[in-house]
Each structure stands twice: as structure tokens, then as C-alpha cells.
Write a structure and sequence with these properties.
This protein is 71% helix and 3% strand. The protein has 408 residues and is mainly α. Strands 1-2-3 form a three-stranded antiparallel β-sheet.
Length: 408
């Protein structure tokens, strides 16, 4: 055990939260894929469990590798990733594979593996924006030399995602705006950009809605209308999710006893939170929310403690984007928002979403690892202690560093 812990660095609380969410994911996916198993695998319910377990283990491996890389390297990786993301999104828009009426996927021809290019683009854009904000801190208040060049990649990426995945584009745009605010961009620039973006999105939707090729636009329009028209007929998903949540009660029906998994479409992905509440009750649902809030808090704490601007922005942006998506998914499940099609990070079944989320957390842990090393080295320098840093001394060092910064 000590050997394993010796190789695992960074915020231990985040490691625990992620492991717990992985366990919840395995249990929930196994419970909610029964209909898939009987439809496509002749009742072999273990097939999807083993498949998801392999995906989860690989995600854990990606997170471990990402957290071992020095976080400053991600500044250089961000440039290459952004240049790759743009043509990938263009290819998806033109020749992508359609799944559930949404052309969001790219299928690799040799290995026959599909992935959503938007998952890669989200990570690339947040890393790149953190890089630009860091490099432009001295001219951060300038409009023409800083703000406009900064928002160009944001506009390009979000515009390429928008036609087939409105909710992802909206979440990514809002995350970028929050990151700009944290990076000290003028608030009036941010609000102006938000207003222009909303107007442009509304114009695009209006133009596409009147064309026969409107595609996803008509789907969005139907979802919004159904949400505000409580008597609408096309509310099957939402109604089944409500039944699942209502029948869960306080402590739920216990694992594996869900009944709505047989009726709720996308019970293993978009509406997996409803199945969790049905089987684990309000207590289980609250615990899931608490885990994500802890993840956000620890991410913000890492950003606050980080001595480098890039690391702080990276941790804050990735943490906020991940938890914001989780809150959107859970709000949809309890009918606080219209259906968006967003998976629950680290919990919903799906390879690319879980893998890129794991990479994001690995990058956050990389920032935390470097911060802990700096604090441990500072404590050793101040005390002259050459002994290995004991458990708890890192937090002690963090407090001493903060006090030292306040005094100087």
C-alpha cells in the first residue's frame, strides 16, 4: 500500500472522490444496462459491466499519467491540441457519424472506435485559454491587443460545436467566460461578448429553424417547448425520470432494484442520476452532489494555493467546467432544466467522455502535485529538516506559505 501511495501525488481528497465516483459508475451502469443486454447481447448483463470496467480502468490510467506530467508542459500541449481540435470539429460537422440524430461522432476506420471530437475540443480550449490569459496578464485590460485575439479561438470552437451540440457549446462558452473573469479580464468586455454571443446564437437558431435541414434545431425547439408546456405529449423521458426519483424515497430501493431502468431511455447515460436516486434514494442523490461540490472546492483550493498563474487558471477552469456539466445533468434529471443530452461526468457510460474527464482531473492533480512539492521544499528550507516530509506537513507548509505571502 505504501508503495502505491508513494507514486500517487496531488490532492488525496480528489483521488478519493474520483474513486468513489468510479465505483458509483460501475454499480449504476451495471444496474441500468439490463435492457441493452437483452436487446443486443442475448441477456448477457455482464458484457456492459466488463466493458465499462475496462473503460474505467483505462480512464484511471490516463489520470495517473496526466498527473505525473509537469503541468507547465500543458501550456505547450494546448497549442497543438487546439490546432488538432479545429479540423476534427470541421470533419465531424461535415462527415461525422450520426448517433441518436446528432452528428457528433468520428469513427476511426481501422480500430472502429468512435469518439466525440467536442470532448477533446473542450479540454484543448480551456488549456489554451489558460495559456493566453497567463501570457497576456500585463496587457489584460487591452481590448484590441488582448481580448479580441483571446476570444477568436473561443468563437471558432463554440461555433463548430453549436450546430450538433448546443448544450456543450453553451457550457463551454460559459466556462470560458468564468475563466476570463478569474483571469482579470474587464467585466464589460465579458458581458459584451456574452451579449453578442447570445444574439448570434439566437440568429443562427432562427435561420436554421425555418429551413427543412434544421436538424438538431427542431429537436432543441421541441425540448424547450415541452419543458415550458407542462401538458405537452412528448415528455416521456422526463416523466419516467420523475417516476424513478419519486419512487426512490429517502433510502431508495437498494442497488439493482430499479424498475424505471426498463422504461427510461438513456438510463445509463443522460438520465443515470435518476436511476441512482431511485436505487439509493435522496440520501444517495445528495451524496453524489456533495462529491461534486467537494471536487469543485478542492479544485478552487488548488488554484488558490498555486504559485503560477497558468496552473491556477488551469485548475479553476477545468474544475468549474466539470462540476458545471455535472450540475446541468442532475438539474435535467430532476426537471429543473430542459433535456440537454449531457452525460454525468465520471458516472455515465461512455468512453470518450470518461477518458477526457479523467485527463482533466489528472491535469488538476498535476497542478496540485507541483504545489505540494514547492510547499514541501519551502518547509524544508525554512526548518532545515532533511527528513522526509511526513503526512500533514504539506498542509502545514501551505499555511506557512500563505502567512509568508500576507506578511510580504
Amino acid at each position: 500500500m505504501q508503495t502505491i501511495l508513494k507514486h500517487i501525488k496531488g490532492d488525496r481528497t480528489i483521488w478519493v472522490v474520483v474513486i468513489l465516483l468510479y465505483i458509483v459508475s460501475l454499480l449504476a451502469v451495471y444496474s441500468s444496462t439490463g435492457t441493452l443486454a437483452y436487446r443486443f447481447r442475448a441477456g448477457n448483463t455482464e458484457y456492459y459491466l466488463f466493458k465499462h470496467a475496462i473503460i474505467t480502468v483505462f480512464g484511471l490510467l490516463l489520470m495517473y499519467v496526466a498527473h505525473r506530467i509537469r503541468y507547465s508542459y500543458y501550456s505547450r500541449i494546448a497549442q497543438l491540441a487546439l490546432f488538432i481540435a479545429i479540423p476534427l470539429l470541421l470533419f465531424t460537422l461535415i462527415r461525422g457519424t450520426a448517433v441518436h440524430e446528432a452528428q457528433r461522432w468520428i469513427t476511426l476506420p481501422i480500430v472502429n472506435i468512435s469518439f466525440q471530437s467536442s470532448d477533446f475540443a473542450k479540454l484543448a480550449l480551456i488549456m489554451y485559454l489558460a495559456r493566453i490569459l497567463t501570457r497576456k496578464q500585463e496587457q489584460i485590460k487591452e481590448l484590441h491587443t488582448t481580448f479580441i485575439p483571446m476570444v477568436i479561438p473561443v468563437v471558432i470552437i463554440c461555433a463548430l460545436i453549436l450546430p450538433n451540440n448546443f448544450s456543450t457549446a453553451a457550457i463551454l462558452l460559459f466556462t470560458c467566460l468564468v475563466l476570463m473573469f478569474i483571469g482579470r479580464v474587464r467585466l464589460r468586455y465579458i458581458m459584451s461578448f456574452l451579449g453578442i454571443s447570445l444574439a448570434a446564437a439566437a440568429l443562427f437558431i432562427a435561420l436554421m429553424a425555418v429551413t427543412p435541414q434544421g436538424g438538431r434545431i427542431h429537436t432543441w425547439q421541441s425540448r424547450v417547448e415541452n419543458y415550458f408546456s407542462r401538458g405537452a405529449s412528448d415528455t416521456y423521458q422526463v416523466d419516467q425520470a420523475k417516476i424513478a426519483i419519486a419512487s426512490g424515497g429517502l433510502i431508495g430501493k437498494l442497488p439493482g432494484n430499479s424498475t424505471q431502468r426498463n422504461f427510461l431511455p438513456q438510463a445509463y447515460s443522460d438520465f443515470i442520476y435518476a436511476i441512482i436516486v431511485e436505487e439509493y434514494g435522496l440520501v444517495g442523490g445528495f451524496v453524489i452532489i456533495l462529491l461534486y461540490l467537494i471536487l469543485l472546492y478542492r479544485g478552487i483550493r488548488i488554484a488558490h494555493k498555486c504559485s503560477g498563474t497558468f496552473g491556477a487558471l488551469l485548475a479553476a477552469g477545468l474544475s468549474f467546467g466539470l462540476v458545471f456539466q455535472a450540475m446541468i445533468n442532475m438539474a435535467v434529471a430532476v426537471n429543473l432544466l430542459p433535456v440537454t443530452g449531457q452525460p454525468l461526468p465520471l458516472v455515465s457510460m461512455g468512453g470518450t467522455s470518461l477518458w477526457f474527464t479523467s485527463l482533466s482531473i489528472g491535469i488538476i492533480l498535476s497542478v496540485s502535485r507541483k504545489t505540494e512539492e514547492e510547499e514541501a521544499g519551502w518547509l524544508e528550507h525554512m526548518t532545515g529538516d532533511q527528513e522526509p516530509i511526513r503526512a500533514g506537513q504539506v498542509d502545514e507548509a501551505a499555511e506557512m506559505v500563505l502567512i509568508h505571502k500576507e506578511q510580504t
